[in-house]
Structure formats: C-alpha cells, structure tokens
Design brief:
The complex is a heterodimer of chains A (243) and B (250). Chain A contains ten helices and ten strands. Chain A has 243 residues and is α/β, with parallel strands linked by helices. In chain A, helix 5 packs across helix 6. Chain B is mainly alpha-helical. Chain B has one domain. Classes of the chains: A alpha/beta (243), B mainly alpha (250). At the A-B interface, helix 2 and strand 6 of A face helix 4 of B.
C-alpha cells in the first residue's frame, strides 16, 4: 500500500505540492490527473525517493520513504517499476540490455538468463524480435513498451507510469492503455498513472484523483468523475469548456 | 575581491570535492565495474588515437625543424634527437595530448551525461536501484586516468618518429645519429614526470567532464553550457597542474 500524507514541496519560491494526501490500496490502479506543471511527476519522484519532501510523509508497505537509508531505499525501489515520460531508455545499450539492466546490475545473473528474462518481459508488452536493436531504431510507441518491459523486469509490486501516452498518436496511445490494463489484470500490480489524457485516465483507472493547486481536490471512481459537481474536475474533464 | 565571488568560488571547489569524494567511495565497486571501465577505455582511447597521432607527428616534425633552425650549424646532429626527446617527454606529449583529449573527451562526457540528466535517464538508473555515480561517473573517471598516460606514450612515440622523418629527410641526419640523440642525456624522472602529468590530466579531464554532466540543468541549452564549461575548466586546470608538477618533479 502507498500512503501519501500532507506532502509539501517547493522549488525555490515556487510551491508545487501544498499538503497532498493520497492512498493507493494494493491491487488498484489510481490515475492522478491535473494540468501540466501541477506537480504530478514531482509526486511520483517523491514516491521512489528521488525527491525529498519539505514536509509530509510517504509510506510504501509501511516504510517511510524519507527515513530510509540509501541501501534501504534501493531495496524498496526494486519493488517499484517506473515508466518515465520520455521512456528514459539508455541509448548506449541495446533493447535487451535496457530491459535487463535492473537485473544485471543488482543480481548475480548470467547474460543468457538476463537475455531470457528480457525476452519474456518484451513478449509481455507484445514486442518480439527487437532484443538486439539499438534504442535509436525504435519508434516512440516501441520505446514506451520497452520502458514498461524494463519496469516489469524485476517483478515489481508497484508500477508508476508518468504520462504513458504523451506524444503518442491516438492509435498507439490506445494500444499503450490496453497494455496497462492487461498488465494490471495479468500481473495484479498496484499502479499509479499520472496523466492529463482523460481517455487514458478513464480507461485504466479504478480510481481517479485530481491534483490541483498542490492538493488532491477530488478522489473517486471514473463514474464519479463524470457525474461530480466539482467545478475544477468538470472544467478539466471538458477541456476548459466550449471554444 | 567581493564576498559573492569568494563564496561562489569556494562553493564550487566544495561541490567538486564532494563529487570527487562520491566517486572515490564508489571505487569499492571497481572489480564489478571492470566491463564498464574497459568500454570507456576503448571509447575514449581508440577514438582519440587518430587526432593524437596526427598532432604528435606534425608537432614532432616542427620541433625538430625549429631546433635545427634555432641552433643551425652550431649544434651537432645528435642534438636534434635530444631536443625532440626532451621537449616531448617533459612537456609537449602530455600537454598536447591533454589539451586534445580535454577538447574531445571532457566535452563529450559532459554532453553525454548531461543529456542523460535532462532526459531522466539518470533518474531511471536511480529508479532501478543503480547508483549513477557508480555506473556512469566512476568508470569514466578511471578510464580517463588510464587512457591519458597511454595516449601520451603513443604521442611520444609518434613525435619521435615525426622528428626523425624531419631530421633525416630535411636535415640529412643519419637515422642512427638521430636515435642516439633521443637517448642522449636521458634521465628516467623526465619520462615518469611526463607520465605523472598525463595521469593528473586524465584525472582532471574525466572529473570535469563527469562533474559538469551531472550538474546539467535545463534542456539542450544546459547540455551545451555543460560541455563548454567542462572543456574550459579542464583546460585551465590542466595548465595549472602542468606548472605544479613541473615545479614538484623537475
């Protein structure tokens, strides 16, 4: 379970998170929606300890992330897969080396075994025969899939998606959404999807939380999002109203 | 000197020292990073060889030519070889190689790591429980320290050859006389002093390249700035170390 309590974060004079509270139960997928620059990615970075909160706590499986030592934090990160916005694949490595990186660098594993695991994870994201390709040879959608395969390589309990459909065409975006949903059903991984793509949010979420002005201003099921009277949520879902 | 300058200067020195300390702590993982270091040695060393060979060959010829021009008829032929040997062992081979590699490698290190910083690849490493200093900075740092003395040795050899070509074909010096000249008045500490310089230059070049790469902020503009700062600071430090080691060793 991921529990975020009263989280505050500022960068210089800019207050980004102002008392954010959010709970994610085991097995559920929560989508965090909000405008660009509202702090969604900052929230994800706090969960894996890449950023330290100014105030507030993040609890993952009962462990307070900000109180962990570096080695404990690294141990915790092995349970959390992250899919970054721009895929963040290492371009000096091949596809399989990227996917298996978390294994080859953290476990004693043979090259053959690592390659085999990479192949399995790539087939989970419906990518086959690309193991030996360079990252520069892949399309945007393929890179996203490789990033998902990399996040899955260490068999995480949680997976965090940062804008998984950004910069993808509508068909590829839909394929990625279907993939997120099918992985959730197959692997029963707890997920947080940060997005401003409402189609994606409705498609993959068990619960949708709206981040606005540094706080969660709404938290409910996709149906509740569509029927709520909350003006901020309505305005966001309808894209600011009519032209 | 105003207070702001002093603060920023010592702040900078402090940050570089902390970064260096973080790399040194990661030397514990040296055996595990053998493959990464080897890749970087090949990447830095092999790719720098053509420009080092080209520059050293011509610099060797020019040194022999200038020595002959300055001393003219008053200098025995063997002294041409000695002039080339002394100039390159003590100063020119490490300095030329250092400056070339500073331009080529430190900018490339800063740009490569800087791009990884701005495209979240370093965050991705962290998220995979991989320490980026151990995975990226330490192997590059060690590779730089190993590569520079090797390239300096190559530069020395090529410069001797270039000086020989010039002496033999332009000034009609007999090959055996030129070779004897190379060995004349040879003191081992001159060679070791030159290689010590190369070692320090490798240290400075890889440290500045990786430091500015890790400190990159913003997008493409930030990467460009990091690459420029890496080259400028590596070159300045290189000249400082050149004088410092000359003062200590010779």
């Amino acid at each position: 379970m991921i529990k975020i309590e009263n989280l505050y974060k500022s960068f210089n004079d800019l207050e980004v998170l102002k008392g954010l509270t959010l709970n994610v139960e085991v097995g559920e997928t929560v989508t965090v929606i909000g405008r660009s620059g509202c702090g969604k990615s900052v929230l994800l970075k706090h969960i894996i300890g890449l950023l330290t909160p100014d105030m507030g706590d993040i609890w993952v499986d009962g462990k307070n992330v900000k109180m962990l030592s570096k080695s404990e934090l690294y141990k915790l990160r092995l349970n959390i897969g992250v899919v970054f916005q721009g895929s963040a694949l290492l371009d000096f490595l091949s596809v399989w080396e990227n996917v298996a990186l978390g294994l080859t660098e953290n476990q004693k594993i043979t090259v053959d075994k690592a390659k085999e695991v990479a192949r399995q994870k790539l087939s989970l994201v419906e990518l086959e025969g690309v193991e030996n390709k360079r990252i520069s040879e892949l399309s945007g959608g393929m890179k996203k899939r490789v990033a998902i395969a990399r996040a899955l390589a260490v068999d995480p309990l949680y997976i965090l998606y940062d804008e998984p459909t950004t910069a993808l065409d509508p068909i590829t975006a839909r394929t990625i959404n279907e993939l997120i949903l099918s992985l959730k059903r197959k692997l029963k991984i707890t997920g947080i999807v940060v997005t401003h793509d409402m189609e994606s949010a409705f498609y993959v979420a068990d619960r949708i939380a709206m981040l606005h002005d540094g706080k969660i201003v709404f938290d409910g099921t996709p149906t509740e999002v569509q029927t709520t009277d909350n003006k901020i949520v309505q305005n966001f879902v309808k894209g600011g109203g009519q032209y | 000197m105003n207070k702001g300058f002093i603060e920023s200067f010592f702040g900078y020195i402090g940050r570089v020292c902390i970064f260096l300390g973080a790399i040194i702590v990661k030397l514990y993982y040296l055996p595990r990073s053998f493959r990464l270091i080897l890749e970087q040695i090949v990447h830095m060393g092999i790719a720098s060889m053509p420009i080092v060979i080209f520059t050293s060959f011509f610099a060797g010829m020019v040194t022999a030519y200038q020595a002959a021009f300055q001393a003219g008829e008053y200098m025995p032929d063997a002294y041409l070889g000695m002039a080339v040997a002394k100039a390159f062992m003590i100063e020119l081979a490490p300095l030329l190689t250092g400056l070339i590699v500073a331009g080529r490698v430190s900018s490339s290190l800063a740009a490569e790591i800087g791009t990884m910083r701005v495209t979240e690849q370093i965050d991705a490493l962290e998220s995979l429980a991989i320490d980026p200093i151990r995975y990226l900075a330490m192997p590059r740092f060690i590779a730089g320290i190993i590569v520079l003395p090797l390239l300096t040795g190559l530069s020395l050899f090529v410069a001797f050859f270039g000086g020989g070509i010039c002496s033999i074909f332009i000034f009609d010096v007999k090959p055996i006389v030129y070779i004897e000249g190379l060995r004349m008045q040879y003191y081992p500490h001159e060679l070791w002093g030159g290689l010590l310089k190369a070692f320090c230059f490798g240290f400075v070049i890889s440290l500045m390249g990786t430091y500015y790469g890790f400190m990159t902020e913003g997008g493409a503009e930030g990467v460009g700035k990091a690459a420029t700062k890496a080259v400028v600071s590596a070159s300045i430090l290189l000249l400082f170390f050149d004088l410092f080691i000359a003062w200590i060793v010779f």
